[in-house]
From TrEMBL, chain B:
This is Acetolactate synthase. Its cofactor is Mg(2+); thiamine diphosphate. Residues 193-327 form the Thiamine pyrophosphate enzyme central domain. Residues 4-116 form the Thiamine pyrophosphate enzyme N-terminal TPP-binding domain. InterPro entries: Acetolactate_synth_lsu, AHAS_TPP, DHS-like_NAD/FAD-binding_dom, THDP-binding, Thiamin_PyroP_enz_cen_dom, Thiamin_PyroP_enz_TPP-bd_dom, TPP-bd_CS, TPP_enz. Its EC number is 2.2.1.6. Keywords: Amino-acid biosynthesis, Branched-chain amino acid biosynthesis, FAD, Flavoprotein, Magnesium, Metal-binding, Thiamine pyrophosphate, Transferase.
Length: 187, 572
């Protein structure tokens, strides 16, 4: 049997770049009672294809269901669960933090340790940009919190599998349907 | 050739072989209606857009072709939604074309503007908002392709008024469509077919659960050959009725909430379930925790998302049912399950004396009588459409269907008001057929205005109103589960005979069993649409019944104290 443990899954969903597609995907999550933790969408190397990275909580069975539901959407071209793969996962945060002269040096040191960048400076504040996996940014936020965070925004993660194989391989003329999850459970 | 968007609509419909369209004109689809007059299509003017949607749905279910309905923007489109959702739940290949306000007004709360693609997003297989005339043709072609391929379903195309009015150079391109994200899988995978055949070889108590997929994939012949060669009995879902002949010795009957007791018991005892084009709906399984506890499960469905959805299966095969059965038949040996079949026969023996024979001869007319007599009268050859409720279950139990595409009912959504418009749609699909809408007094009144449509069209459908003065199924639940507190279920109806007459149609009333036959004869002899008001026993209930969520084998049976066996003619 598959593992029944709930955990955050990172799905990459390739969709046709058409009006309303984001709405279709988001509506599906709501309708089928899945909670989106984060969702990002942007262009890809393929013309006409957008790439969503969606973090969603669920056990393996639920994610298998979700994948099947996503494939029912006519504009969804491919769905991959990168959770159990060797992948690069990145979140980006912009953090506006209180930085009066007395604490500024200390903050700059912390930013250095986390390899962040200061992208805006005023007398009383800094905006710091930080890229990394979710844990790293969580850690950074905790360290900054005592200094007084004025404002923060995070993009949600984007992810890509390591290695040279592309995620999307265009189908040939009479190609098979897109891959869908194995429909045999191991009893 | 330069054509307007409105003309392109009709050009595509013509190429798709559309002969009849159900709809209602309005401000935002006037260009489409204006262009219609130049095309050889029959338009049926409905009295409410819900009716148009149900007619297109039933037309599709009877003919196997895509059904088409049209409406204007705003309220016209929102009135369609109940019918669209009905078609969605029952996988009916339908295309809905709605007018939308002029594109530059979209988003400005214009008169009769509604976000129709937004509203219908969860109740369509796919939908389109077309704002440019260049997109009218491609969107409609895709709509027809998506509606009828894979797991069929409704597709809506919302066309802005200016896209209907503007012109563009357009030529029909007959090349097959290729959609990047939509490629239904028709061919089953060999490995899974082999695994299924292995499970069949090991089984001693196998059972086929036949759903609507049998009809949608035209797999009736393959199913029969499969069942006969492997000697496996067949149980049907509500929408699977007609996919396997009721009179076939291997037919068990309907499963589920109001299925036969021996069918549900067989499912619980089976060691292998072969689910063919059905989706383990909760009305079919009862309590999932205790469902078919001894059975391994093979599930064949064209929709990958149905596999392992409600019931986890041992072998899931994604593919067209007909193609899959053909592949399996190449390897399926002759098998013998006589011990199992005899066992089922014994179970049937106890309960085979059907409800109808338990009905007291107290002078009252019972719904079961009416439907039983209608079945005998029509020789089981009529197209039956139903509404939703007690009469629907009685019709499923007592009208025995041998042929496919003659049993048209709203299963998944359970839409009251479906019966009469469905009958009209069915009649357009098969004008030579005798069509009977079996409806309740409640559901009939939801769409009774379509009598006027039938009258205007001059078509003949027959309406059998099973009139018990209650919203009967809800009343039954109140009787069983709410201490007979009949909240809002008693219903006073108009005089249905006069209602028919007001439409220039024939109305009849029947209050006694002995008058049923004569009324049916009068109805058949009449030229136009006929409404028969059958005044049946008011507080009768549908038996047997599995309460919602209960174990499938724990059925409520008709109290035996009323048992009085009627004439042998009622023997089924």
């Amino acid at each position: 049997m598959t593992m029944e443990r709930k955990m955050a899954h990172t799905l990459v969903v390739l969709v046709e770049d058409k009006p309303g597609v984001l709405n279709r995907v988001a509506s599906l999550f709501r309708r089928r009672a899945f909670n989106i933790e984060s969702l990002t969408v942007g262009h890809t190397e393929q013309p006409g294809l957008s790439r969503m990275t969606i973090v969603v909580e669920g056990d393996d069975f639920a994610i298998e269901r979700l994948t099947a539901y996503l494939y029912k959407l006519v504009n969804v071209v491919q769905v991959e669960d990168l959770t159990h793969t060797q992948s690069v996962v990145r979140d980006l945060a912009l953090i506006k933090v209180q930085a009066p002269p007395e604490s500024r040096t200390q903050i700059m040191q912390v930013v250095d340790v986390f390899r962040g960048r200061v992208v805006d400076v005023t007398n009383q504040s800094l905006i710091v940009e930080l890229t990394g996996d979710v844990e790293k940014i969580d850690g950074f936020v905790e360290v900054l919190r005592p200094f007084g965070i004025i404002e923060m925004v995070r993009t949600g993660v984007v992810a890509m599998e390591r290695g040279s194989t592309p995620l999307y391989v265009p189908l040939n003329g009479n190609g098979q349907a897109h891959p869908h999850p194995e429909t045999i459970s191991e009893n | 050739m330069k054509l307007t968007g409105a003309q392109i609509v009709w050009e595509v419909l013509k190429r798709e072989g559309v002969e009849v369209v159900f709809g209602y004109p309005g401000g935002a689809n006037l260009p489409i209606y204006d262009a219609m007059l130049d095309y050889p299509v029959h338009h049926v003017l409905v009295r409410h857009e819900q009716g148009a949607a149900h007619m297109a749905d039933a037309y599709a279910r009877v003919s196997g072709k895509v059904g088409v309905a049209m409406a204007t923007s705003g309220p016209g489109a929102t009135n369609l939604t109940t019918g669209i959702a009905t078609a969605m739940m029952d996988s009916s290949p339908t295309v809905f074309i709605t007018g939308q306000v002029v594109s530059r007004f979209i988003g400005f709360d214009a008169f009769q503007e509604t976000d129709v693609t937004g509203i219908t997003l969860p109740i369509t297989k796919h939908n389109y908002l077309v704002t440019r005339v260049e997109d009218v043709g491609p969107a409609l072609r895709e709509a027809f392709y998506i509606a009828r391929s894979g797991r069929p379903g409704p597709v809506l195309v919302d066309i802005a008024k200016d896209a209907q009015q503007n012109s563009t150079e357009w030529q029909y391109d007959p090349a097959p469509l290729k959609l990047r994200g939509y490629r239904p899988q028709r061919h089953p995978l060999c490995r899974q077919v082999e695994q299924a055949l292995e499970l069949i070889a090991q089984a001693r108590k196998p059972l086929i659960l036949a759903g609507q997929g049998v009809l949608l994939s035209n797999a009736m012949r393959e199913l029969q050959e499969f069942a006969e060669r492997a000697q496996i009995p067949v149980a049907m879902t509500l929408l699977g009725i007609g996919g396997f002949p009721a009179s076939h010795p291997l037919n068990l009957g309907m499963m589920g909430m109001h299925g036969e007791a021996w069918v549900n018991q067989s499912i619980q005892e089976a060691d292998l379930l072969l689910a063919f084009g059905m989706r383990f709906d909760d009305r079919v399984t009862g309590n999932l925790k205790t469902y078919a506890p001894n059975a391994r499960k093979i599930h064949i469905d064209i929709d990958p998302a149905e596999i392992n959805k409600n019931v986890r299966v041992d072998v899931g095969i994604v593919g067209d049912l007909r193609e899959t059965l053909q592949t399996m038949l190449e390897h399926l040996p002759r098998l013998d399950h006589s011990v199992w079949l005899e066992h089922i026969q014994e179970m049937k023996g106890e309960s085979a004396v059907r409800d109808i024979q338990y009905l007291p001869p107290d002078g009252h007319l019972y719904a079961a009588h009416v439907i039983h007599d209608l079945w005998r009268f029509t020789g089981g050859d009529a197209i039956i459409t139903t509404d939703v409720g007690q009469h629907q279950m009685w019709a499923a139990q007592y009208y025995r269907v041998d042929q496919p595409f003659q049993w048209i009912t709203s299963g998944g959504l359970g839409t009251m008001g479906f019966g009469l418009p469905a009958a009209i749609g069915a009649k357009f699909a098969r004008p030579e057929a005798e069509v009977w809408a079996i409806v309740g007094d409640g559901g009939f009144q939801m769409t009774a205005a379509e009598l006027s449509t039938a009258a205007q069209e001059g078509i003949k459908v027959n309406v059998a109103v099973i009139n018990n003065g209650y919203l009967g199924m809800v009343r039954q639940w109140q009787e069983f589960f709410y201490e007979r507190r009949y909240a809002a279920t008693p219903m006073r109806s108009p005089d249905f005979v006069k209602l028919a007459e007001a439409h220039g149609l024939t109305g009849l009333r029947v209050e006694r069993r002995e008058d049923v036959q004569a009324a049916l004869e009068t109805a058949r002899a009449s030229d136009g649409t006929v409404v028969i008001d059958f005044r049946v026993e008011q507080e009768d209930s549908v038996y047997p019944m599995v309460p919602a969520g209960a174990d499938l084998h724990n059925m409520i049976r008709r109290p035996v104290r009323t048992a009085i066996v009627e004439t042998g003619e009622d023997e089924l």
